[in-house]
Amino acid sequence: MNTTGTVRVRFAPSPTGALHLGGVRTALFNWLFARHYNGKFILRIEDTDQTRSTDESIKVILDGMKWLGLDWDEGPFRQTERMEIYRAHVDKLLKEGKAYHCYCTPEELDARRKEAMAAGRPPKYDRKCRTLKAPVEGRTPAVRFLSSDEGQTIVRDLIRGAVTFENQQLDDLIIQRSDGLPTYNFAVVVDDVTMNITHVIRGDDHLNNTPRQIQLYSALGYEPPKFAHLPMILGPDKTKLSKRHGATAITEYIDLGYLPEALVNYLARLGWSSGDQEIFSPKELIEKFTLENVGKAPSVFNQEKCVWLNHHYIQQADPGRLAELVLELLKKDGVVKQGAEPDLEWFKKLVKILIERSHTLVEMKTAALPFLADEIQLDEKAKAKHLTPDVALLLIELAGKLKSTEPFTHTEIEKVFNGLVAEKGIKLGKIAQPVRVALTGGTVSPGIYDVIEVMGKDKTIKRVEAAAAGIK
RNA sequence: GGUCCCAUCGUCUAGCGGCCUAGGACGCUGGCCUCUCACGCCGGAGACACGGGUUCGAUUCCCGUUGGGACCA
Length: 472
Description:
Layout: E1 8-11, H1 21-36, E2 40-45, H2 55-68, E3 74-78, H3 83-95, E4 99-102, H4 106-118, E5 142-145, E6 152-157, E7 161-166, E8 174-176, H5 184-194, E9 199-203, H6 210-220, E10 226-230, E11 233-234, H7 250-255, H8 260-268, H9 282-288, E12 299-300, H10 303-316, H11 319-332, H12 344-355, H13 361-372, H14 380-386, H15 389-403, H16 410-424, H17 428-440, H18 448-455, H19 457-470
The protein binds one RNA strand through strand 7, strand 12, helix 10 and helix 17.
């Protein structure tokens, strides 16, 4: 690939809602491409649609990118701050006769479109205003691009190869609406040109816009950038991923307890691969990422695999970091009150014993609950199965032994259990399960010695005795 | 409807004419480990959409069909 000169790519989201997975993947690929080739990654906010754009949404996008670690080198630029630039380019085209005023109202266009469809003709603009001699009184015109209707426009896409479009099929598209705002296709071209973008890497859904844009570049007298159209991310029903497929916004994944590195790794592998490798650090991704290994086929977002990666990265993560993240979740839920945080070192110990069986931070949070609460509710089924009359005495005996256990550590606690088991000639499960239920309320938890150690002597004995007392 | 794109296990993918009895990962599943659940380890089921070419030889190249998707309305 020709990479002489600095690579400049951009991510250009519309701030009309959440930052969702498709957008994130586009941003990620652009970012990886820029970093791989030591280029620049530019962030541009496409907010010309002022009725739908919000500052809140811009904040969500920027926060999401930061969370993922996708740092940008220039921007964020906002299109609303660049209106003069668009206007100047429109004027230039008008002056050179490459664009013309169109006085047709949306209603008129709509009517003619319907007429054309009814008559079996393609619903294309009929170019009525192309030959207009004088302005129409009392109307503010839109501006249309005078496109060629002969020949072909070939998009040389870095992922798809050459894609040919018949110019005849292309419309005289509006580049400036009657309210003076530039249209999407026009603003994009002007922006990419004036920002010296070298590679436009974007979703497949823009491939059909590309020939028009190429024509605009050449009308404006600019060399078009190189294009690369990424395959879409689909939902389980194989249609474009959208809200009805469940969690699609990046913020939802934060709330669900995902780690950014897991999401980055997962999204990188959607539509891109490097042999058999599944796990990539950001550094490796940057090293190995090229457009050559980007696939053409759309891919379905698979929650299970994403969770698996999240589990993997939770195992790798620093317990201190996890402790802080889980604590945040607990505060958000109101389980932990500001100023009443548990001892951080103790909490870290707790987190450590939960790591292995946690797929998300939310799971970790849930598993931490019995350790934080003063009182616990015993699961009825677990109680019925494990807290049976024959274990009442065992529990009392165990509690007694634990009272004099010093130091109160995994090793010493294990000795107590082993001693009791040998003495009574029972299986470990006979006592471990009832204790687990007594301490955590349920039948699933980390290893019982770890649970006891972290729970602490007082709480352990209190709960074991309470459980024994509750057996009828 | 028009234009464009796409097509390997359920899903993500490797494969860039012979190495393929099609490899890996998630998920599913049988077993081992075991104080529960996980983790881990060992094993299993599971795909080249179809039909024509091209070629000594097609998953791989070409054409068509089918299917799916996107865009424009």
